[in-house]
Amino acid sequence: MRRTAVLGSAGTLLAGTLIAGAVAAPAAGADTGQQTKSSSSFQDRGGSEAYGVKVAADRAARQGISWKDCPADWGLAKPIQCGFVTVPLDYKKPHGKQITLAVDRIGNTGSKQDRQGSLLYNPGGPGGSGLRFPTRVTNKNAIWAGAAKAYDFVGFDPRGVGHSTPISCVDPQEYVKAPKADPVPDSEADKRAQRKLAAEYADGCAEKSGWMLPHMTTPNTARDLDVIRAALGDKKLNFVGVSYGTYLGAVYGTLFPSHVRRMVVDSVVDPSRDNIWYEANLNQDVAFQMRWNDWQDWVAKNDAVFHLGTTRAQIEAQWQKLRADAKKKPLGGVVGPAELISFFQGAPYYDSSWVPVAKALSAYAAGDPKPVIEAASPDMTDIQGNIADENGNAVYTAVECADAKWPTSWQKWDRDNTRLHQKYPFLTWSNAWMNLPCATWHTKQQTPVQVKTGRGLPPVLIVQSTRDAATPFQGAVELHKRFKGSSLIIEKDAGSHGVTNLVNPCINPRVEGYLLTGKAGPKESTCAPHATPKP
């Protein structure tokens, strides 16, 4: 799940000539995942869209993908290749308006006999680009080396994201401009101002991207995923989803259970209908406070390094002083409380942020504000980065607002968030304002898919840490119940978001083994946490 400029993932978006010696197609075989039958033999359990998916998938299977060198400004060097897949904007009208989705790949590093098909990846969001996934091969990421021998690593930008018919809600330079208003309201007037901003944001989305908004849903992205599968020539899907990518996987597995070959879901969204998405964000507020406290405890234990205090209360006092100072006078003229939250929330998100966030706070306490200013200030010269940030937030909002019905009563939002803020103040109001455009959304809001086990669904591997802030532990428990035959690996006493890209000798071999053999292991197992960051 996405927070401000932080993607909910374990990582951070034409013309060209065909690469000589492009990746060879796999030899036909029982377990390669190669497409041997018309994709129309499969059933989308999504009602009237089912026919549209069949049409689009059959068409994509015939057309394939024209793989070429990636455009220079995509930052994806050879031997990674790029291409596009065409899908219907509206699956109820498969012969109507079409949109294009950007995909990329790198071939398996093993032999033709080793190859088991394509492995697709979604890093989260909604709004995250998956195009960096093949760089795990070019960067020689040891965690994924075994899987890379067997699979082409395939990334894609979901509809509306990056190079896949991108949407926008506001001018990107205006979107990143700082300082923004303090998310924690001091008065009813502050709340009215934030409500006005949220409504204006919803208006901007409708004005700039209204033609796409009704179709920016997770079920449609799942249908797109099935068309990409067909275009790749794969009979069945191999998929790794992290954060929001787990909900995409859960919806895909529900709509297309017999299409799934291997599926790993890591850091899991609770797929319950009543959780998508209003309750999910309230639950995040509680979990973020827990993980923020974990970080404070770690900083306190390392007072010899950071000199911020030896108790959680002392670390919190340092944070509140910084926050109050920035509220009174934005640091460097641009870093106020809102910008501080955007930077400091990295600590409860990812263990890799623990040290840099602690160092920045330590420097400020010692009289040097420069590290905080440099880390939390927008870069107005990074035009492409700002476009990507605005686009990511637009997709996040569009998908979450369209996926489910949201409360329209401000009294409910106010009551729920006022109550939560009393015990869980770190993220509550910031989270509320980010999602409030959904209260005045301009297009129809759907009823979420009832995630469940369908005929043909193979064992799914679920990986989850117990102290995850962005996707609380209960989400994995719920999906484990709903997907019969699934296996749950629990990383105990850990909370870094996105487990499968961290070094953990208990978890990494299990994930690799599942992808290579399909054996998910015990129904439930517990692993010790990965190494705690060294200060």
UniProtKB/TrEMBL annotation:
Residues 108-132 are annotated as: Disordered. Pfam families: Abhydrolase_4. The keyword Hydrolase applies. Keywords: Aminopeptidase, Hydrolase, Protease, Signal. The keyword ATP-binding does not apply. Residues 426-527 form the Peptidase S33 tripeptidyl aminopeptidase-like C-terminal domain. One of its GO terms (molecular function) is aminopeptidase activity. Residues 1-24 form the signal peptide. Belongs to the peptidase S33 family. This is Tripeptidyl aminopeptidase. The lineage of its organism: Bacteria, Bacillati, Actinomycetota, Actinomycetes, Kitasatosporales. The gene is tap.
